[in-house]
Amino acid sequence: MKILCVSDEIDPFIYTSSVKQSFGDVAAVLCAGDLPMDYIDFIVSTLNKPTYFVFGNHNLNEYKYYSSEFRSSALSDQNSMEAQASQSHGAIHLGFKCAATELIIEDPKTKKRRPLLIAGADGSIDYNHGQCQFTEWQMSLKLAMMAPRLLWNKIRYGKAVDIFLTHAAPRRIHDKEDPCHKGFECFHDFLKKYEPAYMVHGHIHLYNQNEEREGLYYKTRVVNAYSHHVIEI
């Protein structure tokens, strides 16, 4: 099963009328943040594959419509219409959520068929108090709030999560030392505890061919989705 991963820039290899010829064999698309929603729209409408996304720290015009604060507030009729329009892109937002997807895999341990399980986390480290930025403590708390669903997955499917989709990288794995691009320490605890097969992140631009795009850490293959990259489950 091939999965197309994209993040951080509008890639001319993707944003083209011939994208179906190049990537029509993928089973799904993972969008790891900092992408305009109309670009995600294009991917959904052109490839017609299940598409899952998280927000990064840029391209946040529609982030408010997906945030818990907006959903829990009393909406005016105008805001309701705006929210419905913004969430009609056809892609599924996985910010601090878990999904038992429509993609069916054979579990390597039990040999039983079950849904591919994906969990997601929006945002980057807090570097200027902007939208969709979180302190280490805030991110730890948000991940902890996902624990009941992950435990339920473990009980029902024998696995908590297969793919962890984020924008930021783990601290000291693919990240940088400037305040904006530091990763999260708590992602290490998530990988150790739940052992996803893959972690797919964005945020870190790859300008040097010698920089690592994929690496095995603990029992998880950590993948930088910058521009585009295909993984195979």
Q: What can you see in these coordinates?
A:
The protein is of the alpha/beta class and 233 residues long. It is 27% helix and 26% strand. The chain has helices spanning 19-23, 37-47, 63-66, 68-72, 77-86, 136-144, 147-157, 186-194, and strands spanning 2-7, 28-31, 51-53, 92-93, 98-106, 113-121, 124-125, 133-134, 163-166, 198-201, 214-217, 220-224, 227-232. A six-stranded mixed sheet has the order 5-6-9-10-12-11, covered by helices on one side. A five-stranded mixed sheet has the order 4-3-2-1-13, covered by helices on one side. β5 and β6 (113-121) form a beta hairpin. The protein is globular. The N and C termini lie close together (5 Å). 34% of the residues are buried. Residues 72-78 and 80-86 have low confidence and may be disordered.
List the helices and strands and how they pair.
Elements: E1 2-7, H1 19-23, E2 28-31, H2 37-47, E3 51-53, H3 63-66, H4 68-72, H5 77-86, E4 92-93, E5 98-106, E6 113-121, E7 124-125, E8 133-134, H6 136-144, H7 147-157, E9 163-166, H8 186-194, E10 198-201, E11 214-217, E12 220-224, E13 227-232
Parallel strand pairs: 1-2, 2-3, 3-4, 6-9, 7-8, 9-10, 10-12
Antiparallel strand pairs: 1-13, 5-6, 11-12
